[in-house]
Amino acid sequence: MNNIIKIIIITVVAIALIMPNILVQSAPVPVRTDTIIQASNNADVSEDNIANRRRTVAGAIGLSLQEISAARTRLVAADIDEKSNLWTIRKNLLEWLASEENYFQKAERELNAEDITLEGVKNIAKNIKAHRDDSYNKNLANALDFILALEVSRFTNIADDRWHRINTDIQRIERAGLIRRNFFAAEMAKARMMIDGAKTLSQRALVLSENIYILQTQEEQNQNIENVKPAEEKPTSSEQEIVKEEALSIRELCEAAIVNIRLGYEEFVKISSAVRRIMRVNR
């Protein structure tokens, strides 16, 4: 029975230590476009200046490639049902990341050309800034939100699984007579409430993220249609619902879910501390 108790302690403490770090992974690599454009503002054509400008732009390109690599690693690791719409979104995002990687790698090759001139560096800097500002930054932010929603959903499911395992082990301890019946009822009830709340918030984040890509697909399809709908035509009920959901923040939903999970873990830690004391008494 002591082995079972030890399993509870190890499981609870391990989860409590790991989970709060999830938000750290969601922060994008900071790339300052105003720093990039500075490479095109200096008219000094000396070799030293060209080299300095190249290093500035090369650094921005390198950070962009790091962003893409980090996002792809997290996206590939996501656990998604292959039959779901989320799998299609994941597939499309991986293709988009590959396309963006090719873009920045091409810019990197052009920048590293031996015969590059100051004008060439300026053009590359301007093009990168325009590319990031026009579409890349927004699309990357949406991708990171989607990835975060997937990760929070996965960790919420893990927390739910841990609750059931701990609940089973508590029942075993009760049957062994080490604690009275419902000794941890309050802690488990609060943990259950927190995890259920996290699951609801996580699901809303996933739905919202999916809706964003549905809208994006609709916009792309509309661009290919010659006869645009009259301006006075109202959106359908499904379109209205998507617009309504889009006003919410995926990140805020995920952060709220993580807060709930953390609160649930706090109850697990309380239980582990109490079990430690029980172990000392029953040695």
What does this structure look like?
This protein has 283 residues and is mainly α. The protein has one domain (2-227, 235-281). It has 9 helices and no strands. The protein is elongated. The termini are close together.
SSE map:
Blueprint: H1 2-18, H2 22-25, H3 33-37, H4 47-77, H5 85-111, H6 118-175, H7 185-223, H8 237-246, H9 250-281
Helix pairs in contact: 1-6, 1-9, 4-5, 4-6, 5-6, 6-7, 6-9, 7-8, 7-9
Summarize the structure.
By secondary structure, the chain is mainly alpha-helical. Helix content is 79%, strand content 0%.
Identify the notable features of this structure and list them briefly.
mainly alpha; 283 residues; 9 helices
Using only C-alpha atoms, the radius of gyration works out to 26 Å
Shape: elongated
Strand proportion, as a percent range, falls in under 5%
**How many β-strands, per DSSP?**
0
Poorly predicted ranges: 23-29, 230-246
The domain count comes to 1
Largest sheet: none
Structural class: mainly alpha
What is the helix/strand order? HHHHHHHHH
By DSSP (H or I, 4+ residues per run), the number of helices equals 9
Quick check: average pLDDT? 80
Please estimate the helix content. Answer: over 70%
The rounded distance between the terminal residues' Cα atoms is 12 Å
